[in-house]
Amino acid sequence: MSNQAGISTHFDRIVQELERTLAAIPEVEAEALVQQILTARQIFVAGAGRSGLMAKAFAMRLMQLGLDAYVVGETVTPRAGKGDLLIIASGSGETQGLVLMAEKAQKAEVTIAAVTIFPESTIGQKSALTVKLPGSPKDPADHNQYETVQPMGSLFEQTVLLFFDGLMLRLMEHRGGDSAAMFTNHANLE
């Protein structure tokens, strides 16, 4: 018989970590991002790796809510400019490709919002607003003291997804949307 914990024990530990991280997200920062989204002409999202996948999921929900939302780097993504919002999900805030993207966004007068563990990071400093999400960076050299049983950046990436889902509920409250109305914007060629 193995001395390792069963999978349900791991689920419990993950949920406990998520409860702790979600409770620590600054409400003021989250509400500021909601307001930026509501007033943006177009919303662009970006991230690398698994954080990028979470950002893509958020863009899909924004589009389903009826907002003009795009994933940076996709072939159908339009030009960004003044009045637009770029939301960058990056645990470290130092991912080189995302730093370059933030610099381009600044030149195009796009408002930048960083969702990150490190608001003081390069991307955080280039952003008009930051939302600090607690979590452990994937690289232990980033010297974060946030403990997690999960590998690499898993806790941050899960927190990003749930944070974006929470934002979606706030946006639905502001815009009066519901799942049935959003379904009319769901893909129908799959």
What structural class do you assign from the helix and strand content?
A: alpha/beta
Shape: globular
- Low-confidence sequence ranges: none
Count of extended strands = 5
Give Rg in angstroms: 17 Å
Separate helix tally: 7
Which fold name corresponds to the CATH topology? Rossmann fold
Going by CATH, the homologous superfamily would be Glucose-6-phosphate isomerase like protein, domain 1
For this structure, what is the CATH class?
A: Alpha Beta
CATH architecture grouping:
3-Layer(aba) Sandwich
Structural domain tally: 1
Fraction of residues in helix: 40-55%
Strand order of the largest sheet: 2-1-3-4-5
Overall pLDDT, averaged?
Answer: 87
Largest sheet: number of strands, sense, barrel closure: 5 strands, parallel
- The percent range for strand residues is 5-15%
Sequence of secondary-structure elements: HHEHEEHEHEHH
What would you note in describing this structure?
By secondary structure, the chain is an alpha/beta fold. It has one domain: Glucose-6-phosphate isomerase like protein, domain 1 (Rossmann fold). Helix content is 47%, strand content 12%. It contains seven helices and five strands; from the N terminus they run ααβαββαβαβαα. It has helices at 7-23, 27-39, 49-64, 96-107, 122-126, 154-175, 179-183; strands spanning 43-47, 69-71, 85-89, 111-116, 129-132. The chain has a five-stranded parallel beta sheet, sandwiched between helices. α1 (7-23) packs across α6 (154-175) and α2 crosses α6 (154-175). The chain is globular and about 50 Å long.
